[in-house]
């Protein structure tokens, strides 16, 4: 289930700068009941990323029509396409000499549907097990926050473990600050205050992460964005990770430290579900 | 002129991890008189990169045969294929769930020939003009030195200028240390001693950079690898940049500071040409 620049095909030219240099961006979006969840926010982030990388912003209307076309013609797939994962990749397209982008660019849009990962509901209800990754994130203010295609750090970190009893790896930067999970953002609460890492030098600014900020402001929960280390994280009352597909997963165990699934995490899960329906 | 896993085609599946995550490596090799120059060194670096990224090392024999096949069947191209550029890309291939690499990987090999860039010989003989880039390189010991496909920093830096009178941009890291050019490594000489940046936290460890070390040792020239800033670079006697396609280009002007094309740079150019023939 793939559209490349609106055409049904599953390949791109080798010359595409997405392959040559990771010169592009992506979004991973939950589809529930046949509708992309938080699509407006995903398209806004995609637009922001394009502006930061100076890639011409693809028309949201184009992308919207292509998503509808994909979802409408997905009857023949064997998996349940009304609840699935939608991925959008935008690259700078082909051309240019070496690193230098061509003067006139025609970006590539790749829109695809994928079966939902088969995460048990217990992850959401009773929490997950997590570990600390050995792989350290680099520091790069230029690219921090952007969901771009240069993702070797995450690939290497995620390859650190293959046991099924660990669901996420928590990544530190080279200064030993906690930054994020390999595929998620991280929050913890302590004495009723929410904490999450600053993403000024590393990390991806997640859609659900931003929504947790929105919910915290709306419900008068203090939220504090700062640099913190392993020890501070391990002294938390509650920890949870977020992304667009998992929503909010509490961490019940991080390395050898056990955490309770607290009321703040559960409340945020309820509020996030309500936001999805708004 | 392209071979993908030995087959003549010019596209790859969208699922390739080279596109999805920049999960791969590349080499850019000079072809002179129908022969790839320093091929052994390029294949060794490719192998080192694969080992560092845990990508199965493609057989050098396979790649060698494919290069020969490409060069032998390039008669119909309009450009001069006996003197051209050979590019090798190796990606981790398709598959895996999210960032997690698949348990069993079949890497993708992409081998292609390109016309040589039309650099005037004056660049080599009389030097080039260079500027300092605004774009700062991040710090990432995990990936430093590797010629991987995560190259957004270089793309953004190279997009800073389009005037034809500037041939290279010199990049600093976020600590304001000089690291490299957008497409080259950098050296300077001061009082007969060669200096070049440490690449422990950023930068690509170039083949010609390594050969300059070899030549310096062979000819008893002191070479010093360390962190230095703009001011130190601008106080140099001679500056030059290196890569596999350009060889050694002296810098005759960096921003407003003018440099002479000194005897050390010229001597290294001669020795490098001799190495090519060995």
Explain this structure.
Two copies of one chain form a homodimer. The first copy, chain A, has helices spanning 17-21, 39-53, 60-72, 122-126, 152-158, 207-218, 230-234, 263-277; strands spanning 2-4, 11-13, 24-32, 35-36, 84-91, 108-115, 128-137, 168-173, 178-181, 185-190, 193-197, 223-226, 238-243, 247-254, 257-258. Chain A has 278 residues and is α+β, with helices and mostly antiparallel strands. Chain A folds into two domains: 2-115, D-amino Acid Aminotransferase, Chain A, domain 1; 122-277, D-amino Acid Aminotransferase, Chain A, domain 2, CATH 3.20.10.10. In chain A, the strands form two sheets. In chain A, strands 7, 8, 9, 10, 11, 12, 13, 14 and 15 form a nine-stranded mixed β-sheet that branches. Chain A has a five-stranded antiparallel β-sheet with strand order 1-6-5-3-4. Chain A is globular. The two termini of chain A are 28 Å apart. The mean pLDDT of chain A is 95. The interface between A and B is large, with 56 and 56 residues. Chains A, B: It comes from Crenothrix polyspora. Chains A, B: Involved in the biosynthesis of p-aminobenzoate (PABA), a precursor of tetrahydrofolate. Converts 4-amino-4-deoxychorismate into 4-aminobenzoate (PABA) and pyruvate. Chains A, B: It holds the Pfam family Aminotran_4.
* Beta-strand content bin of chain A: 25-35%
Structural class of chain A: alpha+beta
Looking at the structure, the CATH topology of the largest domain in chain A is D-amino Acid Aminotransferase, Chain A, domain 2
Give me the CATH architecture of the largest domain in chain A, please: Alpha-Beta Barrel
Basic shape of chain A: globular
Mean pLDDT of chain A: 95
Q: What is Rg of chain A?
A: 19 Å
User: What is the distance, rounded to the nearest whole angstrom, between the alpha carbons of the first and last residues of chain A?
Assistant: 28 Å
CATH superfamily of the largest domain in chain A: D-amino Acid Aminotransferase, subunit A, domain 2
Please give the most extensive interface between any two protein chains, plus how many residues each contributes: A-B, 56 and 56 residues
Total of DSSP H or I helical runs spanning 4+ residues of chain A: 8
CATH class of the largest domain in chain A: Alpha Beta
Q: What is the count of β-strands of chain A? A: 15
Order of helices and strands of chain A: EEHEEHHEEHEHEEEEHEHEEEH
Low-confidence stretches of chain A are none
């Amino acid at each position: 289930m793939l559209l490349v620049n609106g055409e049904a095909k599953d390949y791109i030219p080798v010359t595409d700068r997405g392959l040559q240099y990771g010169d592009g961006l992506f979004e991973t979006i939950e589809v529930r009941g046949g509708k992309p969840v938080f699509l407006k926010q995903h398209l806004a982030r995609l637009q922001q990323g394009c502006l930061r990388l100076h890639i011409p912003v693809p028309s949201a209307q184009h992308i919207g029509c292509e998503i509808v076309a994909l979802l409408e013609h997905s009857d023949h797939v064997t998996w349940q396409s009304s609840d699935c994962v939608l991925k959008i990749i935008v690259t700078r397209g082909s051309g240019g000499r070496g690193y230098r982008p061509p003067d006139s660019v025609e970006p590539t849009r790749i829109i695809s549907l994928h079966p939902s990962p088969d995460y048990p509901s217990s992850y959401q209800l009773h929490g997950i097990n997590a570990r600390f990754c050995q792989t350290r994130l680099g520091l790069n203010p230029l690219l921090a926050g952007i969901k771009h295609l240069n993702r070797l750090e995450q690939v290497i970190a995620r390859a650190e473990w293959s046991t099924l009893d660990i669901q996420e790896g928590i990544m530190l930067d080279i200064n030993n600050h906690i930054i994020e999970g390999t595929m998620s953002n991280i929050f913890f609460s302590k004495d009723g205050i929410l904490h999450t890492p600053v993403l000024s030098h590393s990390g991806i600014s997640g859609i659900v992460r931003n929504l947790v900020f929105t919910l915290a402001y709306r419900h008068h929960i203090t939220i504090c964005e700062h640099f913190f280390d392993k020890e501070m994280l391990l002294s938390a009352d509650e920890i949870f990770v977020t992304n667009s597909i998992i929503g909010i997963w509490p961490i019940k165990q991080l390395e050898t430290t056990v955490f309770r699934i607290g009321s703040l995490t559960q409340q945020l899960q309820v509020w996030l579900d309500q936001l999805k329906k708004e």
